[in-house]
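A brief tutorial aside. Many learners find it easier to grasp structure tokens once they have seen a single protein encoded end to end. The record that follows does exactly this for UDP-glucose 4-epimerase. Read the sequence first, then the structure, and try to relate runs of similar tokens to stretches of the chain.
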Amino acid sequence: MLAVTGATGFVGRALLGRLVRDGRPVRALTRSGPSGPGQVCIGDIGPDTDWRAALAGVRCVVHCAARVHVMADHHPDPLAAYRAVNTAGTERLARQAAQAGVRRLVLVSTVKVLGERSLPGQPLSANSPAQPEDPYGRSKHEAEQALWAVARETGLEAVVVRPPLVYGPGVGANFRALMRWVAQGRPLPLGAIRNQRSLVGIHNLVDLLVRCTDHPQAPGRAWLVSDGHDLSTPDLVRAMAAATGRPARLWPVPVPALQLAGRLTGRAAAVARLTESLQVDISDTVRQLDWRPPYPVDIELARTAEALA
């Protein structure tokens, strides 16, 4: 029996659907809603969550639930809020999983553990040092450390997967907004950007998570994942345009002008994500786990566009 936390979220819902289609016994763990066959409501996640009933008979947990990164967090203490769910909640789950006889826990973390950017031609790798910059990234890094500690103490098999930006049907936030603008034929001042970004389609991420539930080489490591085909921001817009059947309307506004506009409008971080590079090297994942992204970018973007229509 597999269990998926955050089973109604973006990643958890896609993973649950894949496991059901594969005919694998799976239990959905949700924060709210009724408990019943195949689903257990565990309430809010934190240091006091009681996972015991939800973990009975489970051999592997894929932990997708998290307080996710938001662009404008107005909590009076954002780091404490992230830590309560992502760090303390993960440690609590890991300890109770080990006590319940769960063999393996797969944690969906984030590439933000390694930082917000990569140098040109130097993608982040499995050996890159942790350099989280924001409360979300820091809480996820601490969650990883807590999981490794529980694994050392109990023998629980711990696996960490660090995705970059995840997109696909149901995606929200800035990716959804950008794709809608492209689909509406809006001109975008992004034509002069010369960066490289790694992305991962939801179906590619789910495929690796499934691999990590039973691959003998997966435990004890943090794995990077992507579509295996990095894009500049203008290339992403062009690919979105092709997926939506619209022409790409790109204006070549100089990057310094974009950065200035970002500072003046309080959106410097958003502009940085559009203009800077953030690449990951998945060669170690490909080699050690015998895994390759099964779906090309154009297929994943087409699925995303179809869901937006």
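Self-check: The longest strand covers residues 157-162. If you spotted this yourself, you are ready for the next section.
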